Amino acid sequence: MNDPVSGIALGVVIVGLALSTFVTRTSFLVAGARLRLSHRVEVALRYAPVCTLAAIIVPDVLMHGPHATLDLSMLNPRLIGAAATGLWLCWSRNIFGCLAIGMGAYSLARLYL
């Protein structure tokens, strides 16, 4: 980081991100009980963690290879692990078994494919 302009720009970006994170996270605490959400919004917010998790995991599972291209083949070990995890979760509803089955299927697929 020899360029002082890029150092200042990086500092401004870090401070801006910290402020935006602080404002968005504390706004719900400050508004607290004064903010009344409709029933539809409350129901929709229940799905926010699942949607966030899917947005993080799905691209990582489906994008494979050195150029991160869409890989829907059965040679994609991540897809095999995710499919095994989903099937186990639908069948048993057991989270610990889900982790074990998913990681086991992923590890076997990486070893043998």
Question: What this model shows, in words?
Answer:
A hairpin with a 4-residue loop joins strand 1 and strand 2. It is built from 5 helices and 2 strands; from the N terminus they run αααββαα. The N and C termini lie far apart (43 Å). A two-stranded antiparallel sheet has the order 1-2. The chain is 75% helix and 4% strand. It is mainly α and 113 residues long. Helix 4 packs antiparallel against helix 5. The longest helix has 28 residues.
SSE inventory with pairings:
Blueprint: H1 4-31, H2 39-46, H3 48-62, E1 63-64, E2 69-70, H4 77-92, H5 95-112
Antiparallel strand pairs: 1-2
Keywords for this entry:
113 residues, mainly alpha, 2 strands, 75% helix, flat
Q: What's the number of helices?
A: 5
Q: What's the β-strand tally? A: 2
Distance between the termini: 43 Å
What is the helix content? over 70%
Strand line-up in the sheet with most strands: 1-2
Mean pLDDT figure: 88
Tell me what portion of residues adopts beta-strand conformation. under 5%
Q: List the helices and strands in order.
A: HHHEEHH
What value does the Rg take, in angstroms?
A: 21 Å
Structural class: mainly alpha
What would the principal axes of the Cα set say about the shape? flat
User: Main β-sheet: number of strands, strand sense, barrel status?
Assistant: 2 strands, antiparallel
